[in-house]
Protein 1
Amino acid sequence: MVTLFDASKKPARHPEKAHRPDNEILRKPDWIRVKAPGTKVFKETQKTIRDNDIVTVCSEAACPNIGECFDKKHASFMIMGEICTRACAFCNVATGKPYPLDKNEPKNVANGVAKLGLNHVVITSVDRDDLNDGGAEHFVDVVEAIREKCPDTTIELLTPDFLKKEGALEKVVAAKPDVFNHNLETVPSNYLSICPGSRYFYSIRLLQRVKELDPNMFTKSGIMVGLGETRNEVLQLMDDLRSANVDFLTIGQYLAPSRKHHPVKNFVTPEEFKAYETIAYSKGFLLVSSSPLTRSSHHAGDDFEKLRMARLAKLS
Ligand code: SF4
């Protein structure tokens, strides 16, 4: 069966995937159960986000944890629009030609952080390969606006790779986010089919460069499993991240947003996730979150505290 897109309606979110054959959607195992959205606090969080003109990756990426996170007034903000210039095979964010940057966005995001009362905020973005600096300056503007409005809130940036944008990474690191996160997403053998616009070793180098620029900055990276990778490839990826001195690794189960996206190849069991966690700790990560529903920004505030504690314990 092939799902047809109705051209008379809104433009397709994923025009590049429209003509792909439909993939089978595997039935989720029992261990993937999430809190249903819709509580009173969930609706209040949604309203605050809407009223402040904010885009969240929680909604755009169809995150399975949205019920739990919004119910705790947690959200991860996605800046620079809702349209991405890349077309990764796993991602639910719309692909196409993005709109110009919204100059009010830094202020709106800072207001949203204040209204939600966030102690720790995760700011991510779409890829903006169309901008000369990949959006680095805009990241800096958002960090500065949050610092001004909410000086006690710690800031975690989850950035794109700024591929071929000279000086972009340096600008963002100079803004001194508390955590610098850049996701590898998957093992190198999957890059051509899953994230063809990105380069695995460029991303490793980017994370290494952050530590060179600021050795005290916490660095973090995440992958999805269930995309056809082998266990040995995941272990090699851990070594690659450790060679770049990355502090924190997140590993979660990939869930396909639609039949047109890359199919789930397998569901990794909770025991296998636990084994990845044990191995990753043995390789020297300060913190590891590895479970079916782990997402890059899930429990990010609590994890930031754990990171700080883990560093202190190591130093002492
Ligand atoms: S895990 Fe992250 S992206 Fe998902 S709902 Fe929570 S804050 Fe949003």
Protein 2
Amino acid sequence: MATANFVRFTMLFQRIQHLFKNRLPGQLVVQLTDQCNATCPQCGMRRTEKFPRSMLELDEVKRIIDSAAANGVEAISFTGGEPFLYLDRVIELARHAGVAGIRYIRTGTNGFMFARFQSPRFDAKIHKMLEELACTPIRNIWFSLDGESLYI
Ligand code: SF4
């Protein structure tokens, strides 16, 4: 019985492999930093954790992107930590990835910029951020809204 199940599983796996063969672009995930301004209890990168934070060097990431593009990678995700703490870097790297020929460029945020929506400068700040993002080849932005998160 166990052997029959194994054979069925193997056949299913092979069919799935066949189904997706050459259809899913290779993906590169770049964790730019382990800095974050949220306090999600399940995450070791929350801002209340005491450890030396780090940040990848821009030129190093650009070399990685170039190498990935040369090897056929078509999708890249810039993660953290909280990438939007360093939006200028994300934008620069996204542009670099676009020039390198990577088609699917993604990044995400915990949404901290929406926390102070009652501020008189809120609309202007969000508008500026969206204008900057609109001038990039970034294709998708995810928002990880976590009810347990608190932002500074
Ligand atoms: S927002 Fe993300 S990186 Fe930051 S503490 Fe929460 S789960 Fe961790």
